[in-house]
Amino acid sequence: MAAPARSVAVPALSPKLLSVALLSVGLMLLLAYLVGFDQGAVSQSGMFLHELMHDGRHLLGVPCH
Amino acid sequence: MRTFGSLLVRGLIVGLFAGLLAGTFAYVTGEPRIDASIAIEEAGAHAHTHAHEEDHHEDPLVSRDGQRAGLFLATSLYGVALGGLFAVAFTLLRRKLRTGNDAYAALGLAAAGFVGIVVVPFLKYPPNPPAVGDPDTITRRTVTYLLTLVIGLLAVWAGVALSRWAARYGDVARLAGGVAGLVGTVVAAYLILPGINEVPESFPATLLWQFRFASLGTQATLWLLIGFGYAVAVDRRPIRSKVAAA
Q1: How far is CA A7 from CA A11, B7, B49, B95, in A?
Q2: Where does the chain cross the membrane (chain B) (predicted)?
């Protein structure tokens, strides 16, 4: 027997949903940037965040020195 | 029906757990390779600056133990970010995915994300352990890496679009269309993008590939757990309706 079809569990698209979704994407990309690409040039942390997450950056496949 | 907030929170939580477990995988398979690479780097630096040994010792910003703990921080935060992005993508794309089952939709989306964001960049620019990259090219390498992410997602989209268009000519055409759309886009992009080869001749090939597979495995763990975790999280119906269905 095929898997039973279930109702689609997402809300309908609306301008409000799109704006909230876009804001979330921005926040998530900022977080990913801090982990993967921050070289201390933009943030005020110097190289601290970069060095702290250095191993993870290499193992997550992000370019590094 | 779930609200966007509920869909997003599920993604963040699933991402956090996926990131923690991916960090564990990375710690076991990746850390020994990173230590070996750093040992090679230090042996080289030592031979270089043998004459002025007194100014060789500078305190690192974060100790190696700190970096090992930071690995879990990095994979967890990255997992949270990916989980959140995944939840947004699920919300916006769910109606375009032709399945009535939300769990299948989540698994399909995770498979597409893994191919586009991990496999396509990996094959063009495989990750390198510490002590390999040239610091002067970091900006160029970052830009080309981000380009391969975008191209990977475009290639997946092209594959899906072409397979749907070709479906009218039968199942074989549907499959061939999907493969042609994906592979065609990727091959074209690979030919245009510059090659980057910075691994020194002297770096052990075995260590290099052990590191690369550890990195691929880390990301595979992350995406596998996000896919299955979100499939479970979004599929969970209220207990009352489960009892009623039983």
Answers
A1: 11, 15, 67, 11
A2: 7-28, 69-92, 104-123, 143-163, 175-193, 213-233
Give tens-digit pLDDT for B100-135.
899 999 999 999 999 999 999 999 999 999 888 888
Q: Residue B131 in contact with residue B34, Cβ under 8 Å? A: no
Q: Write out chain B residues lying below 8 Å of A39, CB-based.
A: 138
B75/B186 same-domain check: no
Size of interface A-B (CB pairs under 8 A): 167
B80 close contact with A: CB closer than 8 A? yes
Contact check, Cβ <8 Å, B100/A53: no
Cβ distance A9 to B102 less than 8 Å, yes or no, reads: yes
Q: Which domain holds residue B179?
A: 136-198
Tell me, yes or no, if B4 comes closer than 8 A to chain A by beta carbon: yes
Answer whether residue A53 is part of any domain: yes
Helices B4-48 and B64-93 meet at what angle, rounded to 10? 150
Instruction: Please give the residue range of the domain that contains residue A48.
Output: 16-60
Instruction: Indicate the pTM of the whole model.
Output: 0.89
Q: What ipTM was assigned to the predicted interfaces of this complex?
A: 0.86
A9 CB-side CA count, 13 A: 25
Q: How many domains does chain A have?
A: 1
